[in-house]
Amino acid sequence: MGSPSDSSGPTPDARDLRFALPRGLGAALGWLAVFLLLSAVLLRETVDTRQLLAVWEHARLAPLIVGFTVLFGGVGFMALRWRALLPEPGRIDVPGIFGIVASGQLFNMALPGPVGELVAAGLVQRRYGVDGPHALAASLHARFVGVATAAAVTLAVWLLAPLPIPASARPLVLSAVVMACTWGLGMGAVAAWPALLVAPCHAVEARLGGRPVGWVLRAFLRAVAMGRRFGEALSILGRRLGRAHLVAVGWNLCGLASVTLGAWTVAWALGTAGSLPGFLFTHSALTVGAVLLIAFPGAQVGWDAAFASLLVTVVGLPVEQALAVTVLVRVQQLCTVVLGAVALPLVTRAEGVGEGASGVGLG
Q1: Tens digit of pLDDT for each residue in 166-220?
Q2: 8 part of a folded domain
Q3: Contact by Cβ (8 Å): 318, 164
Q4: Are 330 and 27 in contact (CB under 8 A)?
Q5: Which of 18-22, 64-68, 269-273 is predicted with the least confidence, judged by mean pLDDT?
Q6: Assigned domain for 45 exists
Q7: Is 201 part of a structural domain of the chain?
Q8: Burial class (CB in 10 A: 0-12, 13-18, 19+), 193
Q9: Residue 126's domain spans which residues?
């Protein structure tokens, strides 16, 4: 990921920051429109669209607003989770780190790859004087801790809570549990012991690095090199696992609880509350998979489809209500992008981002 002086990676300048605003908002609106179009096609083939209209007509406005507001706790606690892993977190103000995280969400919508992580690390460096690679390492640790915690919650809910899953769907859901837990706990292990990722990557590079390569092997070696750099960045904090990581786990659990309660309240306001453990299972399982959105921004529609499907199979909501809840969750994420668009110019104007940016790169 580069040293503090290495600015060869995709560190954005002021022009990139201005460019991200319309592109990020456009991407968020575009994916919402695509999901709405796909939902309309599905509804036309499966249910009477008048049932969907009835969901909105009979919605209770006050709890709907409360649930929608509580959903923002997911981003807020994500910011606190990252803050806990930064050096001297007490001097990092909560509104500032929240705005930076929201700005990172904007860049993840606007550009491919983990650009949002890089931008957010650069903003933390400029605003708070935290070393850029250290800020990025803390961000990656926060992601890995979040995924590992969500995987553990997914397994716990599956084992301990009654879920209204049809018998025909249980094998498929069980497969998802196994995949989520394997992936999530594996990421947690790498966060705790980065050598698990760095050592094999070094071995592969040493064995294959000097050979003439075709485009397939060249692409593979680039992926290996990126994995090694991620591991090296993680190792900045990897030797200091302790209280900060426990605090990060606590904030992550608060975030899962906030999003779960928010979505459950929205569903209740729309007519059918569904299974509260089912909502927790759904959000924790999809938190594990959501890390793919960093590399593949187009996967938003896939996430929406998976979310709506789990609301039907695991939570027990009718199809039309599951789609309505999914739309509201996507609108809330769009609002987060808007907040990022509002916060980004304020942070960059105040701290002069764009005159040298973060010095954090992937190249």
Answers
A1: 888 888 888 888 888 888 888 778 877 888 888 888 888 888 766 666 777 777 8
A2: no
A3: no
A4: no
A5: 18-22
A6: yes
A7: no
A8: middle
A9: 14-190+245-351
The model's pLDDT over 96-117, given as tens digits with 9 standing for 90+, comes to 899 899 888 877 776 655 677 7
Comparing CA positions, the residue from 227, 263, 175 lying closest to residue 1 is 227
Distance between CA 244 and CA 249 in Å, rounded? 9
Read out DSSP for 29-64?
A: HHHHHHHHHHHHHHHHHHS-HHHHHHHHHT--HHHH
Using alpha carbons, list the distances in angstroms from residue 78 to 26, 139, 157, 160: 24, 10, 21, 26
Q: For residues 187 and 194, what is the distance between their CA atoms, to the nearest angstrom?
A: 10
Nearest CA to 327 out of 45, 38, 90, 126 is that of: 38
Q: What value, to the nearest 5°, has the Cα angle with vertex 179 and ends 263 and 316? A: 35
pLDDT of 277 higher than 70:
yes
Distance CA 190, CA 139 (A): 14
How many other β-carbons are positioned within 10 Å of the β-carbon of residue 299?
Answer: 17
Number of independent structural domains in the chain: 1
Q: How many Cβ atoms from other residues are within 10 Å of residue 273's Cβ?
A: 16
- Those residues whose C-beta lies under 8 Å from the C-beta of residue 64, and which sit 6 or more positions away, are 265, 266, 269, 270
| Residue 90 resides in a domain | yes
Does residue 39 contact residue 323 with C-beta atoms inside 8 Å?
yes
